[in-house]
User: Fold these one by one.
Assistant:
Number 1:
Amino acid sequence: MSSVDWSAHPLVLAPMAGGPATVALAAAAAEGGVFPFLAGAYLTPERLRADLAELRAGTPTAFGVNVFAPSPDLPSMQQEALVYAASLAPWAAAAGVELGTPRYDDDSFAAKVDLLVEAAPALVSFAFGWPPADVVGRLQEAGTEVWVTVNEPSEVEWAEALGVDGLVVQGWEAGGHRGGPVDTGDTQLELLPLVTEVARRTDLPIMGAGGVMTGAEAADVLRAGATAVALGTAFLGCPEAGTAPVHRHELTHRSGTTVTRAFTGRSARALTTTWTELFTEAAPAAYPHVHHLTAPLRAHGRATGEAELVNLWAGTGHARLRTRPAAELARLLVDELAHA
C-alpha cells in the first residue's frame, strides 16, 4: 500500500534536472494540488540538502526526490567520447569555446543516498540505472518509497525482484533523457500502450510520463492503468522554473523533436536543432563522458542565447505549452482532470 494518496493527488510535477527544477516550482505546484518532485541529479549533496530543507519548510505536503543511479563505465566509452570530440572540435572552435574533458563520475551517488536516508522524503525515484538492493532497503527502512524508471515492459519483473514500491513508466514521447536502466537507442513504446502493457504485468503502482500537457490527456493515462501521471514539459514555461531564456523561447517557436545522444551520450528527446542534425549519428553511447565533453559548449549557448548550441529538452507536446504561474497551471490541470 502506497504511503502517498495518489487518488487525491494523481498529477505529478516531473523532476527536470539541469536547471528547470527549482524549489519555487515544486512549492508552487504543490500549492496547486500537484505532487511535487525535486531533481537531485547534477546537484552537489550540499545543494540538495539545502533544497530539501527549503521545500520542507515552505510546503506542508509530501514530495519526491529523483536521483540518477550510476551508469556503467565501460573502457570503450572514454575512447569513443574522444573520437566524438574530434568531430565536435571545429563546431566548438567556431563558437570560440573549448570543449570539456570526457570523464566518468557517479554524481555523488553514495553521499546523496546517505542524505536521502536521513531526510526521508515520501518518495525517491531513480533514473539511468537502478539502485542496489541495500540502497532500496535503507530507504524503505527510513519510511521512503523507492520507485525506478522503466522504458520497456520486459523491465517490470526485474524491478519487482528488486523489491521497489512503484514504477515510473516513461513513454517514447517524453522530453529529456530516457530514464530506464538500459539505453538501447532503439525506438520504444509510446506512453499509452506502454502503461497498458506494464499494468498487465504488475500490481505495483504506475506513474506514467511522456508528452502529457493537459488534465484531459492525463485522464487517458489513468484509464490505461496508471496510478499517477507526471508532467514535465508542461511546466517549463512557468516563471518559477529555472528554464533558460533561450529554451523558453524555442519551446513555442521551433517545431519537431528528436531522440539523440549528441549532447550527453545518453538518449534524450530534444527540439531538433543544427546540433542534433549534424551530430546525432556520430554521438556514442557514452554517458556521462559526452555530458562532460559538451557541457562548456551548451553553457555558452545558454549564456549567449544561441539555440543551436543548447540541449533544448522537450516532450512531443511542447507546442501546446501554456505559460502561466505554476500554482495556476497546477490548479488548471487538476480541474481539467476532474472534468475529464
Number 2:
Amino acid sequence: MATAVIFPKVSLETDAGTISRWLKEDGATVSQGEALFEIDNDKAAVEVEAPASGTISYVRNAGEDVQVGEVVAHILQSGEQPEAAAKPVAKAAPMTVAANGKSQPAQQSSSARIIATPLARRIAEQQQIDLRNVRGSGPKGRIQKRDVIHLPTAAPKPSPVAGDSPLNAVWLQKDGPGTLVALHGFASDHNAWRGLLAAGRPRARMLAVDLPGHGRSSRTVPADLDAICVMVEQRMAAEGVDEATFVAHSFGAAVAAKLASRGFVRVNALLLISPAGLGPEIRDQFIKGFVAAKQPSSILPWLHELVFDPSLISEAFVRSVVDQRKDDELSGALASLAERYFCDGTQTFSIRPDLERLRIPVRIIAGMKDRIIPFAHCHSLPGRVGLHAFQQCGHMPYLEQPELTLSIVNEMLALGRSDR
C-alpha cells in the first residue's frame, strides 16, 4: 500500500511553506530515512526524509506553496501505479483583458510572496539586495544563488588577479583532476602542509592559503570567522577556483567549516583535522606561551606540546618558527588574533551549527592525546560527520601520521567528486 509523504511544520510562524527542491527524481527508488526534499522556511533549508522505502511519486512540484499536513508525494510499493489524479498539474497563469479586448497574462502583484532559496536570501541580506527587484531563473521563477551574485548591486566579484586579495596562497601541487584547498592552523602558514606531502601526493592540485595575520598574508585581524571567509573566498576567486575539497587544521578547520556553510563557493567535501570550534576549552598556557616565545630554547618546549612524540619536531621546524618571531608585525598580529578568538583560554566561536547544516561529505581527524584542544570535543558530533580517532597522536595528525592522513585526504577527494 502506498505511503503518503506529508508536508511537516518547520516554523512556528506559519502553517505553510515551499518545497525548495526535490532531492529525488519523480519515479526514483528511495529508502526509508533518505532525504526526499528541502523546505524553504526563510531561514535554512530543512530536509524531509522518506517515511518508507519504495518508488517516489510526486503530488506537488518544487516551488509551490504547500500547507502543513498536505500530501506532497506517495511512496509506492512494487507493482503499484500512481493515480493520474494525484499527479501535479501545471496551473494556467491568470489572465486579464487588455484595453484592445485581447487576453494577456496578469501581472504579479508587488505584494506577492517572494520565492527564493535560503542561500539566495542569505546573500541578498548580506549584500542588501531587494529580492522584489530580482527575476528568478529557477522553477516557477524561484530566485537562486546565481540570480543574486551576478547583480550589479551585489558585492563585486574579485578579479582573478593575485594582487587583489589580502591573502597569500601557494600552489603546492599544480596538477590533478580536482582542487584541494588547504588551510593551516593558528600561528602556522602554508608551509605546514609540506610535511603531509612528504608522505606522497594528493590526487588533486593543491592550493595552500595563508590565513590573515599569518605567513605572507595581510596582518589585519578580522572581526569574526565570516570576515576571514570573505578573504579566503576572494583568494580562491583570484586563483580561478570556484569549487574544491578542503583539508584544514585547527583554527583553519573552523574557517573551512564556516566557509562551507556560507555557500558562496562550492565545497565538495570537508576534512577537518583537530578542529577548533567544537567546544569552549583550549589550553590557555600554550596559546600565550607559544605566541610570546622568541628564542629556540623557549619555542622548543611549546612545539613539543603539539605532538605525542617530541622527536618529530625537527631543527628545521624550530628554525622556521624562530624566523617568524623575528617579524614583530607578525607576532603582534598573532597576539591580537589570540586575544580575539581564544580569549581567557576560551574558543569564542562555535562551528557546530555550521556542521549541522552541511549536506556534503565531512570527516574529522583528531589525536586522542591532543594537549591543546581536548579530544572530548569530538563527542556528540552531528550524525553526518565521520570521525577518525588517531591513537598515540597529538594536535598535529598530518605531521604525526602523514601516510594515514594522506589516504583519508584522497578518500575525501574521491567522495567529493562522486557527490557532485
Number 3:
Amino acid sequence: MTRAQVETVAARALGVFGLVFSAQTVPSALAQAGALVDGAGIALMAVLYGIAVVVALATFTRVGVRTAATSYAFAYALALAAWPALVEDPALLEGRAPWLYYLCTIATTAAVVAFPVGGAVGYTVAVPMLYGLVRLSPAGGGVGPALAGLDAVYALILGIVVLVIITMLRQAAEAVDQAQDAALQRYDVAARQHATEIERVKIDALVHDSVLTTLLSAAAATTPDEQALAARMARDAVKRLDEAGATGPRSLERVALTVLVRRLRAAMTTFTTPFTVRVVNAGGVELPVEAVDALYTAAVQAMVNSAQHADEPGRTTRRELRVRGVRAGGCVIEVSDNGAGFDPAAVPQERLGLRVSIEERMANAGGRSRLDARPGHGTTVVLAWPAEAMGDAS
C-alpha cells in the first residue's frame, strides 16, 4: 500500500464515519436546541453537519481534502469552546452530555488527516481536555471531576488510537514507496544497460552484414553493373545505419504513472519555492521506462527554470504542477506559473535548458513539448507522451 492509498483510505473513512456519527447526533442536537440561545442550536448543526458533508464530498472527489478536514477540526473546537456561552438554560439539559461529545472522535480524526504529526498530537490531546472542562461547567451537565475526567480520557484514548494507526500506516507506506523508488531506479539502469547491449549486438550485425559486405563488393567491382550494385548496396547500408541511429535503444518495460508522480513530489522537496500539485486520472496508467525518465527530467528542468526566473519583486508567484493520465498509456504534464514570463524568441541559442533538457529530450523519447510564455503573463510548459497526447493538453 502506497502513501497515497493510505491518505485516500483515511480520508474516505473520515468522510463516511463523519456522516454516520453526524446523523446519530441529530436527535440529541434537536432535543438540546431549546436549552441554547435562540438560533444557536440550528446554527451549530448547520455548520458542523454542513462541513461534514463537504468533507465527505472532498474525500471522494479528492479535491480540497486537507482544507475541508482543517475546517471541520477548527469549527468543532470553536463550537466546543463556545458551548458554555451558548447555553441559556442549563436545567433543560438535565445533566446530559452535550451532543458535541459524540463528534469528538471525528474532529480528532480530521486533525490527523489535515495536520502534521505534531499538530495532530496537540489537537488530539487539547480537544478532549477542553471537553472535560466544559463537562464540569453547568452548561456541560455540571458533573463531578471523576465523570468529566472519564469522558475526557475515553475521547482521548479513541483519538490516540486513530492517530497511532494512521501514523503507523503512513510510515510503513513511505518505507514501501522509498523501496519501490530505489528498486525502480536500479531497474531503470539495468533495463537501459540491457537495451544498450541489444542495440550494440544489432549494430555489430548490421556493420558485418551490410557495411563490410558493401565495402568488399565495392573493392571487387570491376564492371559498370558491379559498381552500380555496390552503389545501391552502399545507399542501403547508409539508410539502415541512419534508421538504427534514429531509433536508439528502447526498453519495453513499463511502470505506473503514480511512480512518476512520487518522483516529482520528491524532487519538489529540494526547492525553496512551493508548487501546488494536481494529479488526475493517474490510476491504471503505465508508461515505458524511457518515457518516465524523459517526463521526469523535463518536468524538473521546467520547475527549476520557474524557480530561478519567474519571481518578480513585490509580487507573489504561484506555481503549479499538473499531471494527467491520458487513457491507459499516455501522460500530460503542465508546469505553470504566473510570474515574469519571457519572450521565447529572445532566448539565446546557447541556453540549453529549454532546447536540450526539455524539447530534444521529449522528442527523443517519442513525446512532445510546448512552451506558452509572454512577458508579464507567466509561463506554462506542457509535456506530452506519446506525442499524440499533446492534443489532450488544455
Number 4:
Amino acid sequence: MTKSNFEQFNDVNVEFFEKAKLSLLDPLGLYLANDVKWIKLNENWNSLKFPVVIGGKGQPILLLHGFDSSFLEFRRIYQSLKRNFQVIIPDLLGFGFSPRCATNEYNPSKIISYLVDLLKILQITNNLKIIGASMGGSAALKLAFEISDSIDKIILLSPAGLFGEPKRIPFPLNQIGASFLGLPQVRKSLCRQAFAFPDECVGEMEEQIASIHLGCDGWRNSLASFAKSGGFAGTHKYIQNIPIKALCGENDRILGKKEIENIRKIENLNFVGLQNCGHLPHIDLPSLSSKIIQDYFLG
C-alpha cells in the first residue's frame, strides 16, 4: 500500500469521526470530542494522524481507556480535571477512532510503543501522571515501567489484566469473537454489565457511546489481531516504586469479587473500594472519582 493510500484511509477515518461526533447524544461526550486534536506521528506509524483529546493547563495527565472503548469513556470527569491539569486522552492503538492502517499488528507491545512515541511528539518528559481504566490500567503499568523516570503518580480505575498469562485466541476464532462483539444485543449487554445499577443508569446515550466507534474502517480486524496476541496479562509485575492508587467498585460484575480481592492484596497499592459502583468509577461516580484523583495528584 502506497503512502497516498494510507493517507486516503486516514482521511476516511477522520471523516467518520467528524460525522460520529455530530451524532453524539451526550453533551459531555460532544464537549470532549470537540477537544480532539489529530496528532501526526512518524514513519513508524506511516506518518498517520491519531485522535488525541488535549485540554486544560497545568501538570500533564495521560488517561488510558479500556478494552474496545474510546476516549469518550472519560467524558464525565474531563471538565473537572482540565481545570487543574493538562489532560491528554488518546485512543489506544487499534481502538476507538484510531487509524487501523498504522500497522499490521495490534498487541500490547505496539500499544506501548505508540504511547511512547506520542509522548515524545507532545514533548512530555517528566512529572507525568497516568490514569488507566480497566485494560488501560495494565497499559498504564507497562508504560510506566518503560518510562519510569517520566512518571510521577498513577491511578488505576478497576484495572484489568493484572494477573494470569496472555490467552491467545487463534484464527478463525479471533475473527468470530470480534464479529460477536459487534452484535447490537451483545454491545447492549456489555454496556449494562459495566454499571452498578443499569436499569437506572443506562440509556440511549450510554449505549451509543459504547458502540459508536464500531463504524471505523478496520474495527473488527484490529480487534481480532489484539485477541490473537493474547492482550494484556500479568501486568502487576510491572508495579515499581511509583506511587499508585487503585479505585475499584464493590459492585464490579466484570472483574468480579475474586479479582478485586486479589487487587486489594497487592503490596504498595493504595486500594480504595467504592460502594454503589460498578466497573467504571469515572462513569458511575464521576464527582467522587474526580475528587479522589485531584486530591491524590495535587497532594
